[in-house]
Design goal:
50% of the residues are buried. The protein is α/β, with parallel strands linked by helices and 397 residues long. The protein has helices spanning 37-51, 76-86, 99-107, 130-137, 156-160, 171-185, 204-210, 221-230, 245-258, 299-309, 331-342, 353-361, 375-381, 387-390; strands at residues 16-20, 55-59, 91-93, 113-116, 142-145, 167-169, 191-195, 216-219, 262-263, 267-271, 280-284, 293-297, 314-318, 346-349, 369-370.
């Protein structure tokens, strides 16, 4: 894959650069950014453009405002946090297009950074509307897409704008694609896949793609319940995707045929109440009571995962091992993060809840790459073409 890079763009002092970033970050009740990972990951591209004297105009979405302004989904808190990280003033523009945006750009100069208001406050963004794209493009001279987390969406800011201005991939976009491309096409063996999270149905395509490439697979989290059900286990009140049991059974059979071991939990942490402080116990997967639900993997399962991964040279991890947001049910996820951090291996973590889970452990700096893209990372690894990436591809590749 060959993408146009920023060095190919005509950027001089004062060049107006429109940058699609992914500032879709969580906000707490005080409208403060509670996890700034995605903002931090955008800094290399922003700083590089500022060093070249560019006027940097950042645009992003946040949440799902359904085409209407929503004060709770404003990008103002993200702009405030970016200012703190850069150590310089960042201008927040309370509009994405129109006179307010045009006047803010006209007042700015070389090295300045602006953050436009949430793109999705305008319904035309998600419609990939050409007129909206032209209004955005009219603010700048060139375009950079650094929002891998939104690259699977064919929206005005990710695809249409790229057809209207000289366009290139930002540094984060390139890092993401290089890391995931290695996982897909050039993993060093033994290569293991660790998957968790709630639903099997969300990851069927991913598992089908990665299974023939992997030397082994670990399945945890809520999705493990469906695999265990496919293996004939009784899971009590645990959440099982009944509609996905046959797909899980087929994957188990494919793994057997390919000689690819799948490590499933042998013990779990169960409770009778889905609540953070609920009483819990550890039990084997063959002895779950009818009223009990599994919310984490148990210590025996952790030891089995550690033994399976001991000689791994490449690991892809997507999805927590349990309800990691609650302390009582986070031990399995924390343990897997520590196991991976201690490996002499290339470890790539695929976005979504996995990022939050790793950040919770404080081990993120000991892993090779943590993707900022949730759905985008999974779709890329399934082999799908991402519209935001395709728009940056060198034409004669």
């Amino acid at each position: 894959m060959v993408l146009r890079q920023m060095d190919s763009l005509p950027i001089d002092e004062g060049t107006r650069v429109l940058v699609r970033v992914d500032f879709n970050v969580p906000l707490d009740d005080e409208q403060t950014v509670s996890d700034d990972t995605r903002i931090r990951e955008s800094l290399p591209t922003i700083n590089r453009l500022r060093e070249r004297g560019a006027l940097v105009i950042l645009m992003s979405h946040l949440g799902r405002p359904k085409g209407r302004p929503d004060p709770k989904l404003s990008l103002r808190p993200a702009a405030r946090r970016l200012s703190e990280l850069l150590g310089t003033a960042v201008v927040f523009v309370p509009a994405s297009v129109g006179r307010a945006a045009e006047e803010a750009v006209a007042r700015a100069g070389p090295g300045d950074v602006l953050v436009l208001e949430n793109l999705r406050f305008d319904p035309r963004e998600e419609q990939n509307d050409g007129n909206f794209a032209r209004e955005l493009a009219g603010l700048a001279d060139v375009y950079v897409n650094d929002a891998f987390g939104s690259a699977h969406r064919a929206h005005a800011s990710t695809t249409a704008v790229a057809q209207l201005l000289p366009a290139a991939a930002g540094e984060l976009m390139l890092r993401e694609l290089w890391a995931l491309d290695d996982i897909l096409g050039r993993p060093e063996h033994p290569y293991w896949v660790v998957v968790g999270g709630a639903k099997v149905s969300d990851k069927i395509g991913l598992l089908k793609t990665l299974l023939p490439r992997a030397d082994g697979m670990v399945v945890g989290g809520g999705m493990a319940n469906t695999f265990l059900a496919a293996a004939g286990k009784s899971l009590g009140a645990s959440r099982v995707e009944t509609g996905a049991v046959s797909a899980a059974a087929a994957l188990l059979e494919d793994a057997r045929r390919l000689g690819c071991p799948i490590v499933l939990p042998t013990d779990v942490v169960v409770t009778t109440e889905f609540a953070a402080g609920a009483a819990s116990r550890v039990t084997g997967v063959d002895t779950i009571a009818g009223a009990e639900m599994a919310l984490d993997i148990g210590p025996e399962s952790v030891r089995a995962i550690e033994a399976a991964l001991r000689d791994a040279r490449t690991v892809f991890w997507n999805g927590p091992m349990g309800v990691f947001e609650w302390e009582r049910f986070r031990a399995g996820t924390d343990a897997v993060a520590r196991i991976l951090a201690d490996l002499d291996a290339r470890v790539v973590v695929g976005g979504g809840d996995s990022v939050a889970a790793v950040n919770q452990t404080g081990l993120q700096d000991r892993l090779t790459h943590i993707s900022t893209g949730g759905g985008a990372a999974l779709e890329f690894l399934e082999g799908r073409r991402l519209p935001g990436v395709e728009a940056l591809r060198v034409a004669d590749e």
